[in-house]
């Protein structure tokens, strides 16, 4: 009980330390939050402080209850000690009766223990037999494999054995030939003996090498079999210890994987939302950048067009000025030419040369007749033609320029229209940008609010989780208290049963005492009866002894 109480106190201290650490963390978080979040955080802090105060009060109540239960445990322990002393005293009085009962119970228990031990041994022998059968089956399979390997290797060994005599027969034949030669020549008798000894030693070494080779072939499968058996035994011994550890590690790894997957899914969802917002912002920034570039290019193009138009207008103004100046110069020369033409017509009408031939002849005559005045007129007409050709060329050039200017004006109008459209598009783009910025601002505000809500929810979740943990710990304490109460009840019931047993034993002892007293009284009575009988017997013996001589005398007389 003292251990349970110390464990409960340690848990309560841990809870209080956790609560203090949590309060410090909450205060630090409150200091880090902005001014706008202070009110909400203060409300949450108040709620958490209320929860913590309620939990602290509840823990104080639990401590008081634990203290009361501890006092009750001490009282029960004192009562238990007193009852144990009473039991010891009662047991001292009941030792004689218990010895008699124990003698019978010990004999029965010894017999039952022997039977149980025999059963366990039989069961263990059966299990060992099953295991031995399994190992025997495995060993038989391995022996079959080894036999097959040996059967495969035996013919090879036999072939080696068959080869050995052939190999030995060669040097034997050579030895015989040498002996025959030596006998024929007989140079010395020691040489064949040495040769015989050497061949014997060679044959012995060859036989020993073959025997060693065969022993190695036989020992290798035996060593393999022993190694396999040792490996199997090691595996059988290690597997039952490794399986629960592997299961625990697997369960822990699965739990960690689930937690990591949940955290990754949450972080991935948050990152996806942020990435989507960042993509939208990038697209908007790119669109705005592209629109700005287009507007800049269009403005550059319009500026270049306006510069070209200004140059064309400047050139046109200069051409118009030159044309007016030429007309002013040519106007006094045109009047005499026209007067001269009228005079020529009058002359032709007077001479009657109105037909083409007469006109030609008259013209020729006029030209030839008036050489002095006619040369200058022809010269003036040729110069006027040249000037007229130049003027026509210039007019054509000016018309072309005018047409190009008109085209440029049309293009300028188109450009102005496009500029107006672009300005409208830019206004719409600005409006969209403002809307996007407002949306981004609202999304940022919403994201910040969502983060705040998430932080608040996390804090609430942590608070709820801690409250749940505290509730679980409280429930565990209640369960422990219930278990302790049940244990105390069981102890009380056991004490009551022991008291009842002691009362029964007292009754039995009392009955035994009564029976002993009855037996003693019976024994006393029997002793008195025996004493009376002994006195009677003695008296009878005395009488018989006293009557024996009388009877002897009576017999003699008779």
TrEMBL record:
Residues 172-184 have a biased composition (Basic and acidic residues). Residues 154-188, 235-255 are annotated as: Disordered. It comes from the Eukaryota. Keywords: Coiled coil. Residues 5-149, 460-522 form a coiled coil. This is Centriolin. It comes from Astatotilapia calliptera. The gene is BICDL1.
């Amino acid at each position: 009980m003292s251990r349970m109480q110390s464990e409960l106190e340690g848990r309560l201290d841990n809870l209080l330390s956790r609560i203090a650490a949590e309060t410090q963390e909450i205060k630090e978080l409150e200091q880090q939050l902005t001014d706008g979040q202070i009110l909400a955080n203060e409300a949450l802090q108040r709620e958490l402080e209320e929860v913590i105060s309620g939990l602290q009060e509840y823990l104080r109540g639990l401590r008081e209850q634990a203290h009361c239960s501890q006092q009750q445990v001490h009282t029960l322990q004192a009562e238990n000690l007193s009852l144990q002393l009473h039991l010891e005293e009662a047991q001292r009085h009941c030792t004689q009766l218990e010895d008699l009962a124990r003698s019978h119970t010990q004999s029965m228990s010894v017999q039952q223990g022997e039977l149980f031990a025999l059963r366990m041994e039989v069961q263990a022998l059966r299990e060992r037999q099953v295991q031995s059968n399994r190992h025997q089956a495995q060993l038989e399979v391995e022996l079959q494999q080894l036999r097959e390997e040996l059967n495969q290797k035996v013919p090879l060994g036999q072939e080696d054995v068959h080869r050995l005599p052939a190999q030995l027969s060669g040097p034997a034949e050579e030895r015989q030939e040498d002996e025959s030669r030596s006998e024929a020549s007989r140079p010395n008798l020691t040489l064949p003996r040495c040769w015989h000894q050497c061949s014997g030693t060679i044959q012995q070494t060859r036989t020993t090498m073959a025997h060693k080779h065969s022993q190695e072939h036989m020992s290798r499968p035996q060593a393999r079999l022993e190694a396999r058996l040792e490996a199997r035994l090691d595996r059988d011994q290690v597997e039952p210890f490794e399986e629960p550890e592997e299961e625990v590690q697997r369960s822990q790894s699965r739990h960690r994987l689930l937690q990591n997957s949940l955290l990754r899914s949450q972080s991935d969802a948050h990152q996806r939302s942020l990435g989507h917002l960042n993509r939208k912002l990038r697209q908007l920034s790119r669109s705005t950048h592209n629109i700005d570039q287009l507007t800049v290019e269009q403005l550059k193009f319009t500026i270049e067009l306006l510069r070209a138009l200004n140059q064309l207008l400047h050139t046109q103004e200069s051409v118009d000025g030159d044309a007016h100046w030429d007309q002013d110069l040519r106007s006094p020369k045109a009047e005499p030419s026209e007067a001269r033409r009228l005079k020529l017509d009058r002359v032709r009408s007077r001479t009657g040369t109105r037909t083409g031939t007469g006109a030609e002849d008259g013209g020729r005559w006029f030209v030839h007749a008036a050489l002095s005045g006619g040369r200058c007129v022809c010269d003036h007409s040729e110069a006027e033609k040249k000037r007229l050709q130049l003027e026509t060329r210039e007019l054509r050039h000016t018309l072309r320029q005018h047409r190009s200017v008109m085209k440029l004006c049309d293009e300028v109008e188109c450009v102005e229209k496009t500029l107006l459209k672009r300005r409208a598009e830019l206004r719409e783009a600005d409006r969209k940008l403002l809307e996007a910025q407002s949306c981004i601002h609202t999304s940022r505000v919403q994201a910040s609010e969502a983060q705040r809500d998430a932080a608040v929810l996390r804090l609430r979740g942590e608070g709820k989780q801690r409250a749940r943990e505290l509730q679980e710990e409280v429930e565990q304490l209640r369960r422990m208290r219930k278990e302790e109460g049940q244990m105390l009840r069981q102890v009380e019931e056991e004490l009551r049963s022991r008291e009842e047993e002691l009362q029964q034993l007292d009754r039995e002892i009392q009955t035994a005492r009564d029976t002993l007293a009855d037996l003693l009284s019976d024994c006393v009575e029997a002793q008195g009866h025996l004493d009376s009988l002994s006195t009677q017997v003695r008296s009878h013996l005395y009488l018989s002894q006293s009557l024996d001589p009388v009877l002897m005398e009576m017999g003699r007389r008779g």
